[in-house]
């Protein structure tokens, strides 16, 4: 036992010694290695640290595309060769000029953007001695004595450069200047487009081959917006800033806070602006490795970018194009017929009354430019211009009478000329002297003014006394406007586009109580064509004011440019408000609208009576003083706006429409039914296209693409 214990005690110290020895060797090796790094290679590593710096920058990606509801491309991106320049953080002007001179030998660069100031600056740089001679000895002495600043001396030189001096600049030098100008226009560490228009394959290849001798220059692929339908709906689609414009000055801080670069292209107006966050995409993140002077030594991609999400519009471009053509033809025909010098525009908005989807929003403006007549796109006018709409709004007056409790559905009111002291008689167009009772539906069918006048008088607490005065509670204006607002008249519709107008409210004057009667027949306040479409949709769908929208879906981008990606977001129908109606109230107005289009005495039956789709409608004519663009030359000229609202089929509405033609004629002698002609042809075209698409299988390209996507997914699974 004693021997065993003794043997165990001598074994433990041996293991410990071995462990200490190994640790000693490792520690010695570590010290040796640190010595090499610190003493032998320390200066090299220090130089590398001082030489390089990592800077992360973003590069733009193509914007999302825009399709119509059937999958037709509306706005696309066209790739184009581009040459860029990335300016260093601390740029060397001489090196930049040298690079510009080299690049000028490899590419053609337009000089049309070069300014006189650019030329003067360049001339001074190229002719230092001559520039110095532009300043007198006395002025140089003043400079030496700090009586003139360096900037003041430079300004003197600029002022004294003559046209003859500038003529010394050769075409080659101006080309160098144009390139140098692009170099200096950029922001530090951000690629600046030097040329992206008409870059030839030869230029692209030659520059690519010489990048090593062109510090800061690179070749890449840029893009520009392409419009498949030329000017169709162009004003609504909006536009984007160019690579030269970059961020709008008034919104620079807003965009910079959202990770934009100063020369990024952004949506400037309407659809492109409204959906900027969707269309912009995810930028490519690049890491630029620079030296301490800020010169780029190398670049590498940190994360790949992705082009913006795509928009699918509610608009049917086939219908849009057809309706625009109809407007052009009818507007042109009216202008050629003579006697309509002030008629210059027409609008049509067609929408699904159940969802608020805009199916077509067309507008045209007739202009003479350089002696040539042109029809310009003015689709925006549907939401940015407003007019007196006339009798088209009488459906709102009837329902306001119900909702305020002054009238009952089916109530008869005597239609008769109303005679007030000191004014001309106010009557309905079909009854200049008689007196007979008419119902609410008859009043709509025949477009009775008196029925509306008496309704407004009841709301205002007035009693009609022949040849007496008219005393009205002026609060009635606010009351009627409040109810009209519930239909969308006089308030913004909520469409997903910026800069929508709410219309104009006539000035309420206690000395003019009769203006309330004008209000009741649509001849006091003004409304936009889009508001008129929302109003008639509210009647068509049973009392729900739907928010109109022009974007149907947001889709994920696909790598295959010919495919539409899966749905990222669907724009769902939104009810803004619901009319507080008793059962049967709105049906009275719907019946009145049906009689307008289909009964023999209806004011639109001559145009829609034989329509196979069973139309419901309301016509309108508003008389007033011309307030258009030529008002300085036509002061106090009376004109008539003509309008039409409607929907079909009347018993199951799927499309609602508003037609507005301002200043259609200047006297009853040259009146034209342009609103009826446009409305009938537009509705015919809607149902014609619907029948055509029903014969095509599948119904639309988006459905077809989704079927293909689903099959591909199932195959991969």
Quickly describe the structure.
The chain is of the alpha+beta class.
Q: Explain this structure to me?
A:
- Belongs to the transpeptidase family.
- This is serine-type D-Ala-D-Ala carboxypeptidase.
- It comes from Domibacillus antri.
- The structure is a single chain.
- This protein is α+β, with helices and mostly antiparallel strands.
- It has 26 helices and 20 strands.
- The N terminus is likely disordered.
- α15 runs antiparallel to α25.
- The longest helix has 39 residues.
- It is elongated, with a radius of gyration of 37 Å.
- The protein has 2 domains: 219 residues, Penicillin-binding protein 2a (Domain 2) (Alpha-Beta Complex); 373 residues, Beta-lactamase (3-Layer(aba) Sandwich), CATH 3.40.710.10.
- Strands 2, 3, 4, 5, 8, 15 and 16 form a 7-stranded mixed β-sheet that branches.
- β2 and β3 form a beta hairpin.
Write the layout of secondary structure elements.
Elements: H1 2-40, H2 42-51, E1 53-59, E2 66-67, E3 73-86, H3 93-104, H4 116-126, H5 128-133, H6 137-144, H7 150-160, H8 163-166, H9 171-185, E4 191-195, H10 201-209, E5 217-227, H11 234-237, H12 252-256, H13 270-274, H14 276-279, E6 284-290, E7 296-303, E8 310-313, H15 317-336, E9 345-351, E10 358-369, E11 372-377, H16 381-384, H17 394-403, E12 413-415, E13 436-438, H18 440-446, H19 449-459, H20 475-485, H21 515-520, H22 529-540, E14 544-546, E15 551-555, E16 567-570, E17 575-578, H23 585-598, H24 605-608, E18 616-625, E19 638-648, E20 655-665, H25 674-695, H26 701-716
Parallel strand pairs: 2-8
Antiparallel strand pairs: 1-6, 2-3, 3-4, 3-5, 6-7, 8-15, 9-10, 9-20, 10-11, 12-13, 14-17, 15-16, 18-19, 19-20
Helix pairs in contact: 3-9, 15-25, 17-19, 17-23, 18-23
EC number: 3.4.16.4
Domain Penicillin-binding protein dimerisation: 60-298
Pathway: Cell wall biogenesis; peptidoglycan biosynthesis
